[in-house]
Design goal:
By secondary structure, this protein is α+β, with helices and mostly antiparallel strands. Helix content is 23%, strand content 35%. The chain folds into three domains: 4-71 and 209-240, Pseudouridine synthase (2-Layer Sandwich), CATH 3.30.2350.10; 74-206, Pseudouridine synthase (2-Layer Sandwich); 246-302, Roll (Archaeosine Trna-guanine Transglycosylase, Chain: A, domain 4). The chain has helices spanning 25-36, 66-70, 106-114, 137-142, 181-192, 217-233, 253-260; strands spanning 4-5, 8-9, 13-19, 41-43, 52-59, 74-82, 84-86, 95-98, 118-122, 131-132, 135-136, 152-165, 168-175, 196-206, 209-210, 248-251, 275-280, 284-291, 297-302. Strands 3, 4, 5, 6, 9, 12, 13, 14 and 15 form a nine-stranded mixed β-sheet that branches. Strands 16-17-18-19 form a four-stranded mixed β-sheet. The N and C termini lie close together (9 Å). The mean pLDDT is 91.
Length: 306
């Protein structure tokens, strides 16, 4: 993990960053990239500056698997403030409207939440990174412009009411990619007739990753000062750790050679469909493959790991 290029070095792996409140996902990414002196880095799905929690950072060759993590399910903890709507649907926006929430009971709240379970249509908020005619929606929103947005189909796999003390409700959400928690909270507030916004938001899971492996920026800086770059590299997870939901396919040396040339290969006892993790022998991870209709294994995203 140490080939140098100028002041940068070759680093491959995935860091589970605990992003702090107040920092954009890109600013957090740049800090990690700088601390690691990594040549290449990317993250797997933005968190709002208001939100904290799990932001997997992919370094080096791991950026090639970051797209697969973007498609993964997410887990959130959210604190909702009932009775107040804001311009951004979170605590950072200006207050648009206040309505009494005294009539909201735990039973009514649970019933409203049930109405948003399963596959639903969601309209992206104006304060989002979705593009409209080449411009980010949030840029238009800051100019006071509102445009029509097409609804998106998302899935709320599960919602759990964790705590309820008016005017606040804490909810756990397990959802598909592309879900806007701010919109979900706002919609629940409308269903209750009192409005609502996100008071606090924390991401606790992305695909196979959970909050238990997260590390803060402060902890990274302290470790660098104490143990150097070797200590930082020990925080990284292997590249294939983000793809644990897929089966493994073990290739012989010959099959791996042809696969690296871009040629599909026949592998005995391989799965019959879908994406797979490719290994040469027992240990060497090669990347992502897919099973073709004729049963052969084709390369989908190969890594360049020495």
């Amino acid at each position: 993990m140490g080939r140098r290029h100028g002041d940068e070095r070759r680093v491959d792996g995935i860091l589970l960053l605990d992003k702090p409140v107040g920092l954009t996902s890109n600013a957090a990414l740049q800090k990690v990239k700088r601390l690691y002196r990594a040549r290449k880095a990317g993250h797997t799905g933005s968190l709002d500056p208001l939100a904290s929690g799990l932001l997997p950072i992919c370094l080096g060759e791991a950026t090639k698997v970051s797209g697969f993590l973007l498609d993964a399910d997410k887990h959130y903890w959210v604190s909702c403030r009932l009775g107040v709507r804001t311009t951004t649907a979170d605590a950072e926006g200006a207050v648009l409207e206040t309505r009494p929430a005294d009539a909201v009971t735990e039973k009514r709240l649970r019933e409203a939440m049930e109405g948003f379970s399963g596959a639903i249509e969601q309209i992206p908020p104006m304060y989002s990174a979705v593009k409209h005619q080449g411009q980010r929606l949030y840029a238009l929103a800051r100019q006071g412009v509102e445009v029509e947005r097409a609804p998106r189909r998302i899935t709320i796999h599960a919602m759990e009411l964790l705590d309820f003390r008016l005017p606040l409700a804490e909810i756990g959400v397990h959802c598909s990619k592309g879900t806007y928690i701010r919109t979900l909270v706002e919609d629940i507030g409308e269903a209750l007739g009192c409005g609502a916004h996100v008071a606090d938001l924390r991401r606790l899971g992305v695909g196979p990753y959970s909050a238990c492996g997260m590390v803060t920026l402060e902890a990274i800086e302290e470790r660098l000062a104490r143990e150097g770059e070797k200590g930082l590299d020990e925080l990284l997870l292997p590249l294939e750790s983000g793809l644990s939901q897929w089966p493994d396919v073990r290739l012989s040396g010959d099959a791996a050679f042809y696969l690296r040339q871009g040629q599909p290969v026949l592998v005995p006892h391989a799965p019959t469909a879908g994406l797979v993790r490719l290994y040469e022998g027992q240990r060497r991870f090669l990347g992502v493959g897919e099973i073709l209709d004729d049963g052969r294994v084709a390369p989908r995203r190969l890594l360049n790991i020495a």
